[in-house]
Design a protein that fits this description.
mainly alpha; Growth Hormone, Chain: A; globular
């Protein structure tokens, strides 16, 4: 990535946000690797594994989505930096608490809700920082930097968590992830994150002027007097929310059940699924960098995302039909690479249509609604397809529908 001569503090900020997103995603993903071990420990039947696993995954997104909507206005008053410091402490606490109360299933489920609540304002605050610090022309790349933390977590979580949970138990895995968040994320945020460029103690005058000029150019084309009712009724906002919801159904539903798919459907030992889960998502890092660069370079972010979703739909269908494990690995890797085109532009598209003063709350509503509906329904929709051999074409049809919606969004946003 070539950086303008103006300076690098904004990219330093993006890298810190990447670290926090990585840690936050480890906290939410740990349950996907714990479910097979919990099923064996508690002697759950196959139907109990499906039901309890779906609840443990889905309840997180219920708390997460509600917090996005209702707690983001309070986080705005505190400011992004202070809010992120608080939530890092809280999500570490609730992750560790899940291990300590695991013998009571209902209490464990409650900790998943609280974990979701504690992470709820994270994306709105990161989006607020990104819109504040980065000009429009850099924003797809800026978002892609911190979103890469998500994919790094998906890639590294099996490499980190499978051996750890196999050797020391899944409860130990929860506690160590909580400590990792406190010891790594907290100092970086306290040191390097600042709410605005003007508050940074060591930013160059050139970079400050560069950011301010970009902010002025963008503000000239924004309707800063837009009411909340007008914003949330805006066809472009509603369309992007529908697209984000469908993305979460596919992406979160599929990724959440992937470890169980390999162990139950393919008969692969839990200890051997590390690279099967990690390798496909390595292609997401390559994809998100490429798609973000192409999107910023040619101003065609939504069309690239539409192309990605269409291709991913085809790859998912082939993956679920294939008998060969090698074909599954190759096709799923290609699908992840293609669908990352949406991740490269998702937040940038919303930042394009929302004024700066409404950015964080609008992102809270968007992220909350798409997560509650898409993240909550995703595990339940995908579960019978990839664990019981249900209609495998359904996920592909959903992906193709999202590709069509993205083309429509491009016509409305031209971004």
């Amino acid at each position: 990535m070539t950086l303008p001569l103006a300076g690098h503090r904004r990219w330093q900020l993006a890298l810190v946000l990447l670290v926090t997103f990585f840690v936050g995603y480890l906290d939410r993903l740990n349950i996907t690797f714990a479910v097979p071990l919990m099923a064996a420990e508690f002697r759950w039947s196959e139907s109990q594994t499906q039901d309890y696993g779906s609840l443990l995954m889905g309840l997180f997104y219920a708390g997460y989505g509600l917090a996005n909507i209702f707690l983001t206005p309070f986080a705005v008053k505190l400011g992004p930096r202070r809010s992120i410091l608080i939530i890092v402490v809280l999500w570490s606490l609730f992750t560790a608490l899940g291990a300590w109360v695991s013998q009571w299933l209902m209490v464990l489920m409650a900790t998943r809700v609280l974990l979701g609540v504690s992470e709820g304002v994270h994306v709105p605050m990161m989006s607020q920082l990104t819109k504040t610090w980065f000009p429009l022309e850099e924003r797809a790349r800026a978002n892609s930097v911190f979103v890469s933390g998500l994919f790094l977590a998906v890639i590294l979580s099996p490499i980190m968590l499978v051996p750890l949970m196999m050797g020391f138990g899944w409860r130990t895995g929860f506690v160590l992830i909580a400590l990792f968040g406190l010891l790594v994320s907290l100092p970086l945020v306290a040191w390097l994150v600042h709410d605005t460029p003007e508050r940074h103690p060591d930013i160059s005058p050139g970079e400050l002027a560069y950011i301010a000029a970009g902010r002025e150019r963008e503000a000239a084309g924004e309707d800063t007097q837009m009411s909340w009712a007008a914003l949330f009724a805006m066809p472009r906002f509603l369309l992007l929310a529908a697209i984000g919801t469908i993305n979460n159904v596919v992406a979160l539903g599929f990724s959440g059940w992937l470890p169980t798919y390999f162990t139950h459907n393919r008969g692969i030992a839990f200890a051997d699924i590390t690279y099967l889960v990690a390798v496909p998502y390595a292609f997401s890092l390559l994809g998100i960098g490429l798609w973000a660069w192409l999107g910023d370079r040619f101003n065609i972010r939504a069309p690239l995302a539409a192309l990605g979703f269409a291709g991913a739909g085809a790859m998912i269908y082939v993956t679920l039909q294939a008998d060969s494990l090698a074909v599954v690995l190759v096709c799923f890797s290609l699908g992840v690479f293609l669908i990352s085109a949406f991740n490269a532009c998702e937040f940038a598209m919303l930042q394009r249509i929302v004024p700066l003063d409404k950015m964080a709350p609008a992102m809270g509503v968007y992220n909350g609604c798409t997560t509650i509906i898409g993240g909550g329904l995703g595990p339940f929709i995908v579960s019978p397809i990839i664990t019981q051999g249900g209609p495998s074409w359904l996920i592909s049809a959903i992906a193709l529908a999202n590709a069509a919606l993205l083309l429509w969004a491009w016509r409305l946003i031209r971004y």
